[in-house]
Design brief:
83 residues; alpha+beta; Class II Histocompatibility Antigen, M Beta Chain, Chain B, domain 1; disulfide bond
Length: 83
């Protein structure tokens, strides 16, 4: 059985003043690539992940959406995420 998993996280530092969005892609429990809003692009951790990250980074509309996730996903849902 093969399994693919996607995990997105928002890290809030000092409320919404400093927000970090992290998106991780796993395949068979192995981290293959990751997006970090502080870095601004996907980084691959396996040979397949490097190719996938390079292909994903070359999609301007998709990457614009990922870069905007800090505001549209994290800051927008801040009160939902925090107690």
């Amino acid at each position: 059985v093969l399994q693919e998993m996607f995990k997105a996280e928002c890290h809030f530092i000092n409320g919404t003043e400093k927000v970090r969005y992290v998106d991780r892609e796993f395949y068979n429990r192995l981290l293959i690539m990751m997006y970090d809003s502080d870095v601004g692009h996907y980084v691959g951790f396996t040979p397949y992940g490097e190719k996938w990250a390079q292909a994903t980074n070359s999609l301007p509309d998709f990457m614009e959406n990922r870069r905007a996730a800090v505001d549209t996903y994290c800051r927008h849902n801040y009160e939902v995420f925090t107690p």
